[in-house]
Amino acid sequence: MKGARVWRVAILVACVALLEVLCLTGVIDKLTMQPPHRMAVDLVNMLVSGSLNGAIAKTLGNAAVAFVAAVVLGVFGAIIIHRLRRVRDTLEPLFATYYAIPVFAFYPMLIIVFGLNAAPQIFIGAMLGVVAVIVNTLNGLDRVPNVLLKTARIQQMGARETAWRITLPYAAPYILTGAKLAVAYSLIGIIGAEFIMSNGGMGYEISFAYNNFDNKTMYPLILLILIVSVSINMLFARWEKSILARRGLR
Amino acid sequence: MSHVAQVYPHALPGRRAGDPKPGTPAVAHVSMRDVDKLFSRPGGNPDDTFHALGPIDLELRQGEFFAVVGPSGCGKTTLLELVAGLSTATRGEVAFEGEPIVGRIPDGVGVVFQEDASFPWLTVRDNIAFGLRRLRIDAQEKTRRVDRALAMMGLAPFADSYPAQLSGGMRQRVCIARTLVTEPRLILLDEPFGALDQQTRLLMGDEVLNLWRKTGATVFLITHALDEATMLADRIGVMSARPGRLIDIVETGWPRDRDSRIVQDERFGAITARLWRALREESMKSIGALKPGAQP
What we know:
The structure holds two protein chains of two kinds.
Chain A: H1 2-24, H2 36-49, H3 53-83, H4 85-97, H5 107-114, H6 118-142, H7 146-154, H8 159-196, H9 202-211, H10 215-246
Chain B: H1 3-7, E1 30-40, E2 49-60, E3 65-69, H2 76-84, E4 91-96, E5 99-100, E6 109-112, H3 124-130, H4 139-152, H5 168-180, E7 186-190, H6 198-215, E8 218-222, H7 226-232, E9 235-239, E10 246-251, H8 266-286
Parallel strand pairs in B: 3-8, 3-9, 6-7, 7-8
Antiparallel strand pairs in B: 1-2, 1-4, 4-5, 9-10
């Protein structure tokens, strides 16, 4: 396990080093890409100057709202769907094909409905994440042993208390897997929507910089998105790992 | 001084926690009258039923240890679920302390299942305390009860461990402790040692006998192990193959103060043999080796 981690880091470092060499030697020209060390320096400068802090806060704030909406709707949706067999039979094939739908195609329609503000972007982000949460939560709820449900009945627990105290805690590792996916989907949804049409945010700034050959802004922002996304994912993975370890599953 | 007596120094001989209050009418602690249970066949229409259990007539005495043995699929667990209120009789009446059990879980009943019912996300201490959350007792009393249950079940050194860090036998002890802290007047045990090895089963049997003596609760044990029933119970009900009926009730006549060493008693083998004589034909029926009515 430790060896695999070392190899993973080594491959990553080697790729970055290769990119650095290719950029510095001119194999990749300056107009196409900055060397990675330059991206890091520009990112620090950008964060220190605060020139794009508003855009960064807007994107991360909207992504957070979309993520919370996806998790809350996903978990509650899954609890309801899990109790209604016919609804589940109807919806499950749709969940299986859900990610074949290009959700961004609905973006213009959402702008017409909600206006050119944060709402359509949050809607897209939440839409992308919610099904991953529903599917994983359902998977977890399916695995709750019958004996725990009998125990809940013996303890005279109602449906709400059983969900809150038994089924959701049992399904927590699966919900966390869904949440991990929802983080990535929410960010993709928000940044993608900003990229297509928006009046601010990291996606908008990247698009603007791209159209103006402004590599000093574009690459640091892409690097920041990578850092944020990977960091949140690692946090969730760590949390998931500790839950699984507690249950003797890892 | 026994382990239980050390934990419960205030225990008085002759006084049991489950004894009825003065003035309480002398009724059977649990009674089943003409009880039948029919199930619908899966996927069939509601009229297409099979007879799983009954008719059963049985009365459990206050504070006795009653075991039920029977062939596989005879409806032992169904019988326990009727008493627990987890299932409703199709016909007849099941009552606990004189009150019919219909569509509700009665107060004062604790159940220990065969499967591991510990909550893997809670520590041993929190698992045990879980049983107390509905009771209107102060935090100090809750802590006292949990500490007492931890000590009684030998789990004190593992109070902050998670169930995954314990053996199967210890996890089952956590479940017993969780039931115990609520001080139930009726304890239902559904093959609680089914997943354990023989030595652990004997030792767990000792633990259960200790608890039974101390709490004074009525214990209703479902088991497929004849020696376990003989060792633990005051009376043993023998069930027929499906639909399960009581075909014999055997009084063991053991003293209340007994433990697993009773297996050395010469009467132990005789009681177990009697159970097997009553059960052999029924067990053969249940595995299809004997047609109903044929000679074994």
